[in-house]
Design a protein that fits this description.
This protein is an alpha+beta fold and about 280 residues long. Helix content is about 40%, strand content about 30%.
């Protein structure tokens, strides 16, 4: 193949890649870079949640610190007994930390909201609180109805013992509205075999990259060679990095790509684990 013909084919490859990217509305293919064709493959697999977590808060309040601590210990002991008496297999109570703080009275809060001076001489209630993570494993063996009934038992038992179940919906600024906290999510569902699912997703992503490269090579009349680099390792210039980084940024922003051993969702349904891989193939 002459040098001019080779250059023309490479220009066609590059323009065709841009066309494919634009038509799909996702930057996943790039060609005509270095000495090969570079593509970004995507793979995704789903896993059924095996864990559900609920967040509970145990609190004790009083005008004096001693009273607050005494009430807290009483409520904490009652909560522990309540969850233990449920005798639910796989239910674990994990302590996530304790805090001590003072809360403003209603009149002090109203004064602050109106921009008026706050009278700090008024007695403030002292609060001792502890966050508990109620973690139930083995839920993949339960039906939706059985799981719902189990969660209801935990929630009702916790509330009867004075445990506040659910996410913190208290606004950062008293009296303000925070849309992100308007909905109190009671339960979070998790999968734990993320590494295993990622291996499967990577296999799909690599095959996806190969399929794209073969199509691009066929359309431009060149023969696809061996892999030169993968995941940005090797001779790959900035434009391909930009394509890959943009795609990965979209996945991370959407919470699809996780670096944790667990991956969570607010829905009791199969949770997707997705990856993206950049591969450069030589042209023969």
């Amino acid at each position: 193949m002459s040098g001019m013909s080779h250059l023309i084919q490479r220009l066609i490859s590059f323009n065709l890649a841009l066309f494919l990217c634009g038509s799909a509305n996702v930057l996943t293919v790039s060609a005509g870079e270095g000495d090969g064709i570079t593509v970004v493959g995507v793979g995704s697999v789903e896993g059924k949640p095996s864990i559900v977590e609920l967040t509970g808060v145990v609190m004790g309040q009083g005008q004096l610190a001693g009273d607050a601590v005494t009430k807290f210990h009483g409520n904490r002991r009652r909560a522990e007994e309540a969850f233990k008496n449920l005798k639910i297999p796989g239910l674990e109570v994990v302590e996530e930390g304790m805090s001590l703080y003072s809360a403003m009275t209603a009149s002090q809060m109203q004064a602050m909201m109106r921009g008026m001076p706050v009278n700090n001489t008024q007695a403030q209630e002292l609060s001792v609180s502890e966050t508990l993570k109620l973690r139930l494993t083995g839920i993949e063996k339960l039906s939706s109805q059985e799981l719902l009934e189990t969660i209801v038992k935990i929630v009702d038992s916790g509330k009867d013992a004075g445990v506040v179940i659910g996410n913190d919906t208290t606004p950062a600024i008293p009296g303000s509205y925070n849309a992100s906290k308007a909905r109190n999510t009671m339960a979070t569902f998790k999968i734990t075999n993320v590494d295993q699912l990622k291996e499967q997703a990577y296999a799909i992503a690599v095959q996806d990259a190969k399929t794209q490269a073969e199509k691009l090579a066929r359309l431009t009349g060149v023969k696809l060679g061996k892999v030169i680099s993968i995941n940005g390792e090797g001779d790959s210039n900035k434009s391909t990095n930009a394509v890959y980084n943009q795609l990965m940024a979209q996945y991370i922003a959407a919470g699809i790509v996780s670096q944790s051993d667990e991956q969570a969702s607010s829905l009791f349904k199969a949770i997707p684990v997705s990856v993206a891989v950049r591969v450069t193939f030589s042209i023969e």
